[in-house]
Amino acid sequence: MSKPKEKTKESISIAITGSGGAGVMTAGTLLLEVAAQAGWYGLMVRSSGPQIRGGEAAALMRFSKSPVECLDDRFDVLIGIDWQNIHRFADEIPLDATSVMIGDPDQSEPPEVFVKRGAHYAPLPFKQMAKSLPGSWPNMIALGVAAGLAGLPVDSIKAVLQKSLKKGGGEKMAANIAAAEAGYAFAEGVPSVPRLSGKLAAGKEARWLITGNQAAGYGAVRGGVRFCAAYPITPATEVLEWLAPALPKIGGALVQAEDELASINMIVGSSYGGVPSVTATAGPGLSLMTEAIGLAVAAEVPIVVIDVMRGGPSTGIPAKSEQSDVNIAVNGLHGDAPRIVVAPNSIADCVSATQWAVYLAEAMQSPAIVLSDQYFGQTRAVVDPPADIGLVTERLKPAAGENGYLRYAITKSGISPMAIPGNPGTAYTADGLEHNERGLPSSQSGDHIKQLDKRAKKLDQFDYGARWADIEGEGDLAVVTFGSCTGAAREALARAAADGIKGRLVSLRLLAPSRPAQMAKALAGAKRVLVVEQNHTGQLYRYLRAEYDLPGTTRSFRHPGPLPMRPDEIHQQITEWSRS
Amino acid sequence: MSSPAAAAPITAQAFKSDYKPIWCPGCGDYSVLSSFTKAFAKLQLLPQDVAVVSGIGCSSRIPAYTTCYGFHGVHGRSLAAAAGLKLARPDLTVVVASGDGDGYSIGGNHFLHACRRNVDLTYVVMDNHVYGMTKGQPSPTTEPDWDSKLSPGGTGLRTFNPLVIALAAGANFVARAFAGDPNGTADLIAEAISTPGFSFVEILSPCITFRPEQREWKQMVRPAAVTYTNDAARAARRIMTDDGMNIGVLYKGERKPYQPPIGKGKKNPSDLETEFAL
Question: Tell me, what CATH number does A539's domain have?
Answer without folding.
Answer: 3.40.50.920
